[in-house]
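Researcher: Next sequence.
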Amino acid sequence: MRVLAIVHQRDAGPGVFAEAVRAGGHRLDEWLLPAVTEPPADPFGYDAVLTLGGAMNADQGREHPWLLAEDWLLAQLIERRRPLLGVCLGGQLVAAAAGATAGRAPRPEIGWHQVELTEEGRRDPLLAPLAPHFEAFQWHSYEFPLPPGAVPLATSDVCLQAARVGERAWAIQFHPEVSAADAASWIDDYRSDPDAVRIGLDPAALGAETNEKIAAFNQLGRDLCSRWLAQAD
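Model: Next structure:
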């Protein structure tokens, strides 16, 4: 199976999802937007597509015109029922392509936060094994509302955390893909995020907590991606 990962910044790549894809015997191509304007191959020729996180926001199409082109692409993938998984910014973009309007969350979620599965989430092929709740690494100030006709799968005390669009597209707000190296990079560079500074993020404390929790969370991420690939196969 051929999988495309749409990457929006170098330290927010497919992370442990790449490990799961390759462990399953599949091929993974990465497309770094906006540095590379053309995908490595026809995006509609892939068996499944990932779209990942980034420091930009889903409503910044004027500042980042390539977001508008990606929105069109994701809408086409949804319409064609191509297996699709969006994470954080990517989840917001999937939700937007399905008719929702992403916007600022009531407050940022940065660090480790509890996620609760809905009744539908407890039956979802990707999230059901995580029931009834789990702790997830998060780094976002925006959220996506439920797209029309979508199914809510998980929530936190701040916002919707996961939704399924049709039978083959998922939007996720937390970061199951994040590698230990990428998490450390974000924490070290926290001052580049005005919201992280504003809420008084303690990088030493978050770094220590992440060191304790990331290995188990990485296994959660690999397993989640493997279940997604099983749905796409």
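Model: Residues 2-232 form a domain with the Rossmann fold fold (CATH 3.40.50.880). Strands lie at 2-7, 27-32, 48-51, 84-87, 103-117, 133-143, 151-155, 160-165, 169-172.
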